[in-house]
Design brief:
The structure is a single chain. The protein has 27 helices and 21 strands. The strands form 2 sheets. Strands 1, 2, 3, 4, 5, 6, 7, 8, 9, 10, 11 and 12 form a 12-stranded mixed beta sheet that branches. Strands 17-18-16-19-15-14-20-13-21 form a 9-stranded mixed beta sheet, with helices on both faces. The radius of gyration is 39 Å and the shape is flat. By secondary structure, it is α+β, with helices and mostly antiparallel strands.
Length: 922
Amino acid sequence: MSTRDHAGRADRARRPAPWVRTRLRAAPPAVLLGAALAFVLVLLAAALPRALDRGADSALRTYLRDAGPAATSLLISAPAKSGQDSPERLATALATLRSRVGAAFRLDPSGPVHGARGLHPRSLSNPELARPETVPPQLGLYFLPAVADHVQLVEGNWPAGGTADGPIPVALAAEAAATLGARVGSVLEAPSSVGVPLQAQVVGLYRAGDPAETYWTGLSCLTEACLSLTSVLPAETFWTTAGLVGPESVGRLLDWGVRAEDFWRLPLDPGALRADRLAGTQAEVASFVAGPDAAELATATGRSELRVASDLPDLFARALTRRFAAAPLTAVGPAGVAGVALVVLCLAAGLTADRRAGELRLLRARGGSRAGILGRLLGEGAVTVLPAAAVATLLAFVLLPTPRWTAALLGALATTLLALLALPVRAAVLLAAPRQAGGRRRAVAELAVLAATVAAVSEVRRRGVAPPGEGLDPLLVAAPLLLALSGALLLARLQPALVGALARAAGRGPGAIGFLGLARAARGTGARRGVSVLPLLALLLAVTTAGFGATVLDAVDHSRLRVARLAVGGDAAVTAPARGSLSDAFTRAAAELPGVRTATALWTDDDIALPPAAGRDQATVVVADPAGYAELARTVGRGRFDPALLAGAGPGAPVPALVSADLAGRLGREAFPLRLAGGTEFLATVAGVVDGTPARPEATTALIVLPAGPTALKVPAVGRPNRWYALGAIEDERLRALVRDTTAAPAPVPAAGSRPVPATGPTVLTSAAMTAKLGADPLQHSAGRLFQASVAGAGGFALLAVLLTLVRAAPERAALLARLRTMGLRPRQGLSLILAEALPQTLVAAAGGMLLAIAAVALLGPAVDLTSLVGAAVPAGLRPAVLPVLTQALGLAALVSAGVLAEAAVSGRRQITTELRAGDSR
């Protein structure tokens, strides 16, 4: 080996070891814990925006799909002109429209629908056709070039040929032909204004492959005959359907339909729309509906009268309103988690800095510059934090794919920067020149926080939540966090006095463990005596966030139930068909269904004639058992009354009645005549006033409620109820099965020689089904999941904050326990001492957080609108609820207490043994 090699080795041996490598090797557990903490924080910071984006996109797309293909399409039409329409012109216009619209939006894979149609169906005069109530059926005509891909010819031929003055060849749906009584070869005649009837000959029958297919949206009655009502009272039913013509008969649609139009429906693909671009998409669609793009479409197709219509602008506006209305509520939970995570980061940095305080001061004493020391600490952090942050960011991008990445990347970068700078900043404070205690500065800072809290709460209460369209309301998000911060500062001031009083009370007891632990909790631990604000702040933020979120979710559930009950009239409702009634077998069996708490059957009619003194022609009358109906009205919250008001009617006395306020002022206390269900006339008298009825949620005026017993004696027909209501946990499917088994609605009597009209059965509604429907919106699911995840995350970080506080005080506590152990302290008593020291802060914080959560709801509740989360319009305001807040507070207190107990049991004995072996150097 050469001399040069020996010199190189000697030089390397004399060279000092790299700082970062040495420090990382010196405390591997601390390095791993720091990397794990950075990984979790960065993962949450990157994942949250992406999860919110995915939830918003999913909610928007589901909302649009639920609206139906017709509402999410551009409906384009142009008047048809005689001699100028042909299948080729329709196809050319379609290609032009697709190229223009498809360049701005992605079209739905189901594809566009186009064709021509007559605008007015004609009545058919054939006497052999079905007439449910003597009204002749109607037939409309369509030309659909691509219909062969969606139907199957079952009899005859497709329409083709035909002469200009002969019958129009048409094809009918086989189901429609069977309903009307037509067949292949039938010539259908329709009267015309010129005296010569128009004729259409059935040349073929077809059957749709899937009548529910998107293709048939908006193509009325092409797959079956539809039962319609005349617009003239009394309304009568009649059949209407439509037939298909061939390409040679497109020009004759004008004759049959009086007017005709060419139409194109271009469905947009909801799966390609994004919530963050919704405002721009709304403007683009509006331009196609009534703007420059609409004019360009008319010019490109050569149709000056081209019209474009769509419900998409209104749908987009409602979607934006829903999103912005839910944004403040969904942001409170993540903001609370971010606050607790920041506290944990500060505690972790403080723990590391305190552990290395001697080392850092020694380096400073030996001539190290503050900048150099902080730079080395920053280098240590870069080696541990940056790889963990990069892996966490990549994992968030992979697990939660979404086209938007800016917010997630900015959140990850900001969190990484905080994790990098936390220790250097804490070390800079530690190495700074010592200053006198800043009691005045602390008081000023606390007063500033209190003033900011009062200002934020007052402003939110004064102006309410930011109007829809203005984005996230920062004040509504910041106000609960400021309340928690103010509460933490206040508790930090009050806790020594409160726990000190408990310590003095414990000192008068027989044992010393409780007194010693409580005294240490009141005095605080560490180099700087006093209660630390950071652990209190973490716990208060967690409890306040959890309590506020739990109150919101509880209010949403109760609001949905109220809305559903108001719409249904109870928890379950069964309504007989028109002019029908419910059987006694059904009412008896329904009352015995599992979950039924209260059931009542009643009779209603909306067309009861009133005497001239009432000032109204007609009224809604409800005949019901007073006791059951009063319970129903009280639970639903509509039309409450005292059932005693409807009691006491003798055989010859007027029947007591509850009336709406408008009738009460006109009828007075005098008896007035009533005639129900074609029975004899009887007298009724006003016994009270009601504000509505569960049987008619929308009826608030011209309402009369009568007791069933006395009224049935006057008019026996009202003893056959046509409605049934119940309260309780009633299964929707079980009730529907009972209705099918025990009721059979009578079919309307058909006219002579006509086909019978299908019978319609009772209508069944349940609050459970309606509540599930209201809560099926992904926007609400996303908000609920976000609240639950926020509660879990805040609880986990709060537990970590408490454990870090325990670890920070562990050396001093171990020394104390070692001294006490030499004086005869038993291990179980040592565990009790640790719990007596650590649990008061947890319990005080849980109680304070519960009070703060209730206060936050009470102060901010009037500004909260839950409509977007409920799924229906509800009155604005959020009321405090003790039970959900108490549940969250107790759950978090139990979690933290269990963590403290586990930490004490696992590490307490080891710390004492280590201290006893090493000796006490303090």
